[in-house]
Amino acid sequence: MSETKKTWLITGCSSGFGELFVQKLRASGDNVIATGRNAKVKLAHLEATGAAILDLDVAAPADKIESIMAEAWDLYPDGIDVVVNNAGYVMTGLFEELKQQEIEDIFKTNFYGPLNITRALLPKFRARGTGTLLYMSSQAGMYADPSATGYCASKHALEAAVECLSLELAMFAPGIKLLLIEPGYFRTRVWGNINYVPTRNPEFAEYNDAVRAALESQLGKEPGDPDKAVSIMIDLVNGTGVAAGKEIPLRVPLGSDGWSRIKSKCETVLETCESWEEVAKSTDYP
């Protein structure tokens, strides 16, 4: 059992990272509020852990989320200590074939949902002076792929918003900690539940079929072990295990594939800055 019992609110608990968080945290003695859509059905298997089960669709309007967060805060005497913004989905489709509504829908879940939860709880965290907000981003938050506009854009936007918030909290509420996790491919159900945008232009049919076949061929072969990842994320929040004695950065990549892609992206950006330094600086006034 952890030295100080914490209360965690976790979104997207029906499977994958979310489900593992619930199981591990309850086993360690922490309080857990497990949330998800249609929670009575989809989270019924978690009731035996002793977690509180709460129905939450992160894509709901902001006022609805605010009401549910108020309910969640009152479930335990000392409120909520840690929020794990885990709910999200992957959408695959070429930009030219994407409809605006499809992009708006993935933003409601992957971007607005975590931010609305954050906005609802921040006043309570600030009043208390402590709290941790963990955001499940992705290598896609730093590294773009073809056929992934909706997903990459939502994760890029989430990372930018959380980074801005981290700078604000450093001034107004330094006791509140933020953490962006950037996983690569892990063996969770997310890759078996991809939202494939239908082919709307026959010119792209062969390519779309190839993308789908490639993704489906990787199911069950993803390099990342979700059990290990969740244990490390808990360490990062608690400052234990692999995180003991370390200064925790805002962003932490997980998985060899995610790490290598993010590193490659950073090296490319640095190379561009160095190659174009003279041109960039030449635009300044004398």
UniProtKB/TrEMBL annotation:
Superkingdom assignment: Eukaryota
Short name of any one Pfam family annotated for the protein: adh_short
Native source organism of the sequence: Apiospora rasikravindrae
SUPFAM superfamilies in UniProt: NAD(P)-binding Rossmann-fold domains
Protein family according to the UniProt entry: Belongs to the short-chain dehydrogenases/reductases (SDR) family.
Keywords: Oxidoreductase
Protein name (Swiss-Prot/TrEMBL): Uncharacterized protein
